[in-house]
Design a protein that fits this description.
By secondary structure, the protein is α+β, with helices and mostly antiparallel strands. It has helices at residues 10-18, 42-46, 55-58, 73-88, 113-128, 140-155, 175-183, 195-203, 209-213, 217-223, 226-235, 266-286, 325-339, 376-389, and strands at residues 2-7, 27-30, 37-40, 67-70, 94-98, 101-105, 132-137, 167-169, 253-263, 289-300, 311-322, 346-358. It has 14 helices and twelve strands. It binds a DNA duplex (18 and 18 nucleotides) through residues 30-36, 38, 52-57, 59, 71, 97-101, 191-197, 224-227, 250-258, 261, 301-303, 348, 350, 352, 411.
Length: 431
DNA sequence: TCTGGGGTCCTAGGACCC
DNA sequence: TCTGGGGTCCTAGGACCC
């Protein structure tokens, strides 16, 4: 038996903890560059704001009270840590699946799960201020679906029995009750069924979750893939995806950004790519990993149809796997020079570290060149300084300086303070 | 004017091997 | 006219997730 605990409208809820006046109002959190809506309060959903809705297309709703905030990931990450550590206490094993969701292993846990779920919710709400919903199911796919039902029953009364709101335990429903819930749920709500496969399923007559549960797994494997076959078996109650509570070493590390305005010059791109490469190298060392190659890409904006379009990328192999910021930045900049074409208005660039392996497990190199000094201690010092005095305190010269001169900088006009992660921004309570 | 960022997994197809 | 059979490995692209 699995549980899935998921924050409601997570980013919006984090903002509301520190600005209670936003409770009950339509609120959205915008992506980087204040580009589009990536989180919406229930009230904002009711106004018709979609996930990924471009802000310039829905900002007229400000007249109806819609509040938009720039994404504050430092805040959300910290609130997530608080929530996760509380949730972890309710079961022997926890898998943190995303910033706002974790699976719990409820195998062998006795008692009324619905009551346990409500107690967990209450604790998280009281201790962190974050509302959550809890779903229980015999497989991870079922637990995800139960969580969806718990949320939807709370938000849109009428579709599901009201007692399933907030906490929904499929294990307590009879076969008939469960089938009724499945029949009322569109197939696209199932974990692993996205837009493409959802459309194909509906066209073949599989409209609801119940239809999918009764589909032939072998046929789905033939027509789609083994992934969908597993999904159906999980819907039928056979667990195919285990709980994974061991954080694995990442297989790739990416840092990319869209620019606040179009960028034309190689020098500006070079600054951006250097910055992204340096940040990626930091993440790499945090993972105790080393990169065998560095991929760089740049591209124009596909939304500016009148602009000439270009997209280029190149993978630069490293002589030896490394986590050294200097080498990685150099490789990225070399790659950039290979793919840069003048005369385009660039909208985005990124650096991806690939061929990752554990630090110190790399193959040795025949020592034909004079040995470079071991810079791992330098990196440790750099990370230490930046940890203590803030990101960017020590940086490579090629990343340029932070400030308005930075052509490629991000637009963030509605950012809230770092309430929980910066001394400067600690809220002050007045009686 | 203005459209996010960071991941994983699977599959098909090509290169290459004997 | 007509050109084998059986593998492995790698990559690019596409699907999905949040």
């Amino acid at each position: 038996m699995f549980a899935l605990v998921d924050g409601n409208n997570f980013y919006v809820s984090c903002e509301r903890v520190f600005r209670p006046s936003l409770v009950g109002r339509p609120v959205v959190v915008l992506s980087n560059n204040d580009g589009c809506a990536i989180a919406r309060s229930n009230e904002a959903k009711a106004l018709g704001v979609r996930m990924g809705h471009p802000w310039f297309q829905c900002r007229h709703l400000e007249a109806q009270g819609l509040v938009a905030l720039s994404a504050n990931f430092a805040l959300y990450g910290d609130m997530s840590d608080r929530m996760m550590s509380l949730v972890a206490h309710h079961a022997p094993r926890q898998e943190i699946y995303s910033i706002d969701e974790s699976f719990l292993d409820f195998t062998g846990i006795r008692g009324n799960r619905t009551a346990i779920g409500h107690a967990l919710r209450e604790q998280v709400l009281t201790w962190t201020g974050l509302p959550t919903c809890v779903g229980f199911g015999a497989t991870k796919t079922l637990a995800k679906l139960a969580n969806h039902v718990a949320k939807t029953a709370e938000r849109k009364p009428g579709l599901y029995p009201p007692e399933l709101a907030q906490v929904c335990d499929f294990g307590r429903l009879s076969d008939e009750q469960l089938d009724a819930v499945f029949a009322a749920t569109e197939v696209g709500e199932v974990w692993g069924v996205g837009r493409r496969i959802g459309t194909a399923l509906v066209e073949s007559g599989v409209r609801t979750v119940l239809d999918l549960k009764h589909a032939d797994p072998a046929a789905l494997r033939r027509n789609f893939s083994v992934v969908l076959e597993k999904t159906v078996r999980e819907l039928q109650g056979t667990s195919c995806v285990d709980l994974d509570d061991q954080p694995r070493q990442k297989q790739q590390i990416m840092v990319s950004r869209s620019f606040g305005q179009g960028v034309l010059r190689l020098e500006d791109l070079n600054e951006a790519v250097s910055t992204f490469a340096a940040r990626a190298a930091e993440k790499l060392r945090l993972d105790a990993s080393a990169a065998g190659a560095v991929l760089v890409f740049i591209r124009t904006s596909p939304f500016r149809a009148s602009d000439a379009q270009y997209s280029g990328s190149v993978t630069v192999p490293m002589v030896q796997p490394t986590s050294d910021t200097g080498r990685i930045v150099r490789a990225a900049c070399n790659g950039l020079r290979q793919i840069f074409r003048p005369g385009f208005r660039y909208a985005k660039a990124g650096v991806m570290l690939v061929d990752l392996g554990s630090e110190g497990q790399s193959q040795g190199e025949l020592d034909l060149e004079p040995t470079e000094i071991d810079r791992s201690r330098l990196m440790a010092v750099m990370d230490g300084v930046n940890q203590r005095f803030g990101r960017g305190s020590l940086s490579m010269a090629s990343t340029g300086t932070i400030g308005p001169a930075r052509q490629w900088g991000m637009r963030q006009e509605r950012r809230t303070p770092d309430y929980t992660t910066s001394w400067r921004d600690i809220p002050i309570v007045r009686a």
